[in-house]
Amino acid sequence: MGRPKVLLLGKIDHAHVAWSTISDIADVIQPKATNREDFIAESRSGAFDGVGAAYRTFDSVDITGKVDGELLDALPASIRFLCHNGAGYDQIDIAACTARGVRVSNTPTAVDDATADIAIWLLLGALRNLSAGINALRAGNWRGSPLPAPGHDPQGKILGILGMGGIGRNMAAKARAFGMRIRYHNRSRLSPALEDGAEYVGLETLLAESDVLSLNLPLNVSKPGRVCRFHDRPLRLTESALLQPSTRHSIAAPQFALMKPGIVIVNTARGAVMDEAALVDALASGRVSSVGLDVYEKEPEIHPGLLANPNVLLVPHLGTWTQETQQKMEEWAIDNVRLAVSEGRLKSIVPEQEALAA
Ligand SMILES: O=CC(=O)O
Q1: Separation CA 6–CA 20 (nearest Å)
Q2: Distance, CA 49 to ligand 1 centroid (Å)?
Q3: Across-strand partners of 292?
Q4: Mean pLDDT of all residues in the chain?
Q5: What is the ipTM of this complex?
Q6: pLDDT of residue 352
Q7: Which residues of 3-40 are buried (b: 16+ CB within 10 A; e: fewer)?
Q8: Residue 317: active-site member
Q9: pTM, whole model, 2 decimals?
């Protein structure tokens, strides 16, 4: 048997030393293609034959498109592991991978600090409505005229966290330092140790009583036609018990209608967990007073209603964009490749495939 083969989709920018440990044990293949059509043709030509594991970056979607059934069918059947560099893996159809025996890993934990940090920055900036002042200053109008309305202090306010995973819990700890009271909603309640004093409430209470709502839930996209809803609703998945319900548009017009008037929203998860058009309406009506966003429904496109609104603080998906965190994420994903090649297992298999963990 020859040396194992690893497919590199995207680039290694930081963890060169860690990556050299992969080239020590495997032949690394990089595609020549720069778009999906050519990538599929390249794969069908046999260029990736024998590859057992692939490392992919978020930006490699520009080369391959989404990892769906069509792409997987074009890849050699030898692929058993897909190691994604990123916490969110909504670019990957996990059901399609599962059906083809491809195990998928992501990089949880590594992203927690940086993402929670930017969430806190957006939270404070949106509470203080800094965007209006920043825009006025850049336009040469100092603070603007009339002055932007004064913002709000975080102290004593309720922060409602929707999705209390690693990032949500990290954010809760940081928000406590600003005197915020933490509530959360998840599909299921956490252990007291993980709650760390945060109060578990139903989604409706979270929406109705939070002063600030932070979205920290993953984007899970279910197939059209499959009945699956978010939160405490009957889940009628027919194909695979491994699939989670869809979180797309978890926050849409009916949820905005339940929110405390004047609520501030922060989204560092994925744009599509919130209906962006409904958010524009909720800002216009004043139901939402201000918002801090790192992610957008159709990145890099941004809804013009968000760009035009001075109460919207915008960052171009930079949540994990620090040298330290980029390094940690690459190292984490490379650990997964190394384990896949040398031991046939992953360090952080995605939760939907937990039952497949070796
Ligand atoms: O958005 C960043 C990530 O998914 O890691």
Answers
A1: 12
A2: 29
A3: 266, 313
A4: 92
A5: 0.94
A6: 87
A7: ebbbbbbbebebbeebbeebeeebeebebebeebeebb
A8: yes
A9: 0.92
